[in-house]
Every structure is written in C-alpha cells, then in structure tokens.
Amino acid sequence: MTTSFDWSLPRGTPIRGKWKQGTYRVERPLGEGANGKVFLVERQRYYYALKIGADAVDLQSEVNVLQSIAKQKQKQGSKSGAFLVDVDDYQAADGKDYPFYVMRYIKGMTLGEYLQRQGKEWFPVVGFHLLNKLAELHEAGWAFGDLKVENVIVADFGRPELVDYGGATAFGKGVRQFTEIYDRGYWNAGSRTANAGYDLFSFAVLCLQLHEGRRLAQLSAGLLPQTRTQEELAKLAATSPQLKPMSGWLRKAFYGEFGNAREAAAAWQQWMHRPSRERSGPGAPAPRWMKGLFAASAVVLATTVYWLLRSGL
Amino acid sequence: MKQILLVTDGCSNVGVSPVIAAAEAHASGITVNVVGIVDQGDLVEFGTNEIEEIAKAGGGLSRLSHTRQLSQTVQMLTRKTVVQTIQHAVHHELKQVLGASSIEELPPDKRGEVVRVIDDLSETSSLSVALLIDASASMKPKLHAVEEAIRDLAISLKSRQGSSELAVFHFPGSAYGEDCKLDLDWTRDISGVNAIFPRLQMRGTTPTGPAILHVIDFYQKADYGNRKNDETDGMMSDYVV
C-alpha cells in the first residue's frame, strides 16, 4: 500500500471525472499534503484548487470534514460556504482510479511569504483574523489539527484562509495529523485530543516559528524528550524583543488557559490595540524637530495663558 | 483490535522463520506491523525483504525509517493499520449489503457515509499494541529513539476515544536462551514509567520469529479472562446493518 502519491501532472493535462464527467485543465502544482497533491486547475475560465490522492478513504474523510463545515455554515446563514465544488475520480494513464476533490481557489501566499513581502507589521491583524477563523471552525465542532505556517494562505489585506484539512478532527477525538513542533503532545503540554486548546497551542508555536524560527528549532533540537515543556516555549517568547508585546497571550495559549478561540481572539485584540505597541518601537528617542516644536508650543501656551489672565482680570 | 509492532534493524538469525510466526499471529487475529530502522544504510536488501514479508504475512504494513522519523513512522503505521482493519471488515459488509467489493466502486456521494463509519470505528474501537523491540547489539545506539517513539505513541493512544493499551517487549531476552522479555505489561498510561528499558544486555542473536510467537502467547493468556475474541466483527455487524 502506497501512501505517497508521487507522479506529476504536467500543465495542460485534462482531468476528467469518471462519475460526473467534469473536466479540469491542470495549470500548476500548488502544494502537497499528507494525503495528496494540490493543483491549480481551470474549468470554463474559472480557477479552482484540485486535490488528488491515492487513497479514497483518506480523501473522502477530508471531504466529509469540508461538507460538515459547509453545512454548519449554511445553518448559520453564511454565504462563504461554497468551499467544496466537486468530488470525483480520475482514471489515470496507469489504468488506476485516483480520487480527487475540487475547492475554491484562494489566491495568496503562505503566511511566511506574506510577512516577508508585506512586512511583519501585518502579523497582529492576520493573527486576529486567523483566531476568528479557528473560532468559526471550533464552533462547528472541529479542531483544525495541523495548524502550521505552510497551511495558512494569506490573501490581500491580510485575510488568511486555512488550507489542507487532512488534520481536521472532531472535538474529543485523537488529532489525525499533526506536525511535531506544533504539537501539544510533543511538548508534554497535554494530550492529542482535539479541542480548542490544541489549535491555540499550535497557533502560539506558529507565532514563535514566524518571529524566532531559528531559536525555536534550536530549542527543540537541544532538549531531551522529557524536558520539552510549555515553560520552555513561554520563556522563549518572553525573551524575544519581537514577541514581547504578546508574550502574556502566548503564555496563556501554551498553558491552555483560554476557554475558547473567541476568548483568545478578544485577548489578542487587547494587546494589539494597547498604546504601548508603538510603530517606531518604544525605545526610539523623539526626533529633535519634535522637541523643538514642543518647546515652541509650550512657550506659546504660556504666553497665551499669561495674556488671558492679564486681559481677563 | 490487536497489533504487534516490530521494530528491528536487521535479519532474524535464530529459530522459526518470522514470516511463519507473523502468519500465525495473523491467523489468531493479531496484525503485525514492521518498522525497519535504516540509519547508515545498515539494513541490507535482505533485511528489507524480510520486513516486507513479515508484514505481508502478518496482515500489516512495513516501513523503513531513520531514527529521526521513528516516532512519526510508528504513529502512522499504527493509525493506518487500525483504519485498514476496520476497512477490511467494512468491505466485507459492503459486499453483502451493497454488492460493491470496495469503497472505490461506490460513487463519491455514497462514499461519505461509509467513510464516516470507518472513521468513527477507527477512533472508538478498543486497541492493543504490543511493541516488540529488537535489542541486538546493533540496536543499542537507537534505543533512545525507540523509547521516545513509544512514549509518543502512548500519548496518541491516550488521546483516542476508544480504550487503548500498550505493552513492550524486547528480544533476545537473555543469554540463556530466553527469546523475548516483557518490559512493560499492558498499560494505558506510561507517563509515570521512568525507563522502559533498564540496563539492557545487548546480545548478538536476533530470534525474531520465536519472539513473535512469544507475544502471540502473551496475547492469548490475556484473552483467558472475559475478553471476547472477535469483538471487532461483532461490533461491525451491529453497526453497519
């Protein structure tokens, strides 16, 4: 039994569904998950993302998750539910059937790339949106599971989307797919049972990964399995100048102290808007012209007060 | 559901063939998975062949893994095998109920429900995993990684909905012809266990076959009590029909 699906589909290859006859034309590969490959495809001048894999059961369970989320969203009256477009099988040249499903295509780049190009100042607002995305998913009864930098695509104006639902797990069940460094169990910080805290833990690691990736890798490599703890992660966050404003938030996420993702998002918003988070950095001295201007306005004020007092009395 | 997970880095060289032993395990309802550790390419082609054969005879899966990926490989094999075992049982039902011999034969919109049942059962069925660790001399530097992988597996088992337990054996047991030794009896939680392998005396021989037989025996002794032998089948029939 093979789990890796390692043939490539060159540009222009038509993928025709065996059951519903829908035909998609391959543009280029977009990415790869544990259960299959994702391609950008075109059909009647619309772009879609098509995920194709080797195992019908694995792929169908992803489809089940997507359908269940879509149903939940419909119930709530949201119109963004049309995420899943088509599910079918592709009869490849080797005579075998490969299951695939088609999703809406999200134009954007991975979170890492986005911050590199647009600047790290985007991170607080992207993070806030992402927490709300997680909250939405949690409210439908699912944990995302495999939250990591590669699985977050950011579209224009810092709007993130989660991609690759291979790890999505119903609350209360064992998380189906995870990446060690983002995993609560790996850091001896709790179980792998899917709940809000599991995703929030991964989210906090994601913050470390984005700002202190090198130190995080060193930390993970330098510790013995039994000495990996959430305290080590919290300490790393506290000693990082970039993560300082959110280190309190991160500590709570590492220790599972948020009741749910909405609460975590609200707390995130609080540090985001705290006035101490100045764009120029708290340590930067005021420029000379500003000092001069301040002195001048003080003099003007004093004169005005003096004049007012004189004329009024 | 019963599994044996064999972790080895070489070929068996003493006693009954491990392929026959694995076939016996399969016949008594135990699935055998094999992880072959390849660090410096020390598992030669003959060994690769053997682990594939053992897994095939044992109804399970085999994978080669570097010690660095051991935890992930062990996880993945255990999970995959659970799903596969359930899938076999479901296939059996599919044939009878729907006339389709596999999930792939069903149109996609009919698969959803079947897969939901498979996922559900995979998560909730009870699971026992006996880890059988090759402790021959060449494995010595890898035992840390093995222990880590066992602890990691324990976390995942504990996080399942269904009840899960694991036991750990190593082989050869001693210089006096003991094929296999129990290090850790059935447990649901190993976080309190300090060291799984206390001071192992590494030996040169690799009695893989006899060790597998030993674990089958251990399983059967545990079944002596009030455990039902074919609980999976009984449960399946209830669920699907």
Automatic annotation (TrEMBL), chain A:
Key word Membrane present: yes
Domain of life of the source: Bacteria
InterPro entries xrefs: Kinase-like_dom_sf, Prot_kinase_dom, Protein_kinase_ATP_BS
Listed GO MF terms: ATP binding; protein serine/threonine kinase activity
Residue span(s) of domain Protein kinase: 24-313
SMART domains in alphabetical order: S_TKc (SM00220)
Taxonomic path: Bacteria, Bacillati, Bacillota, Bacilli, Bacillales
This protein's UniProt keywords: ATP-binding, Kinase, Membrane, Nucleotide-binding, Serine/threonine-protein kinase, Transferase, Transmembrane, Transmembrane helix
Residues that coordinate or bind ATP: K51
Name this polypeptide is given: Serine/threonine protein kinase
Residue stretches spanning the membrane: 289-309
UniProt entry tagged with the keyword Kinase: yes
From TrEMBL, chain B:
Domain VWFA: 1-86, 128-241
InterPro entries reported in the protein's UniProt record: VWF_A, vWFA_dom_sf
Pfam families, sorted: VWA
The name this protein goes by in its record: VWA domain-containing protein
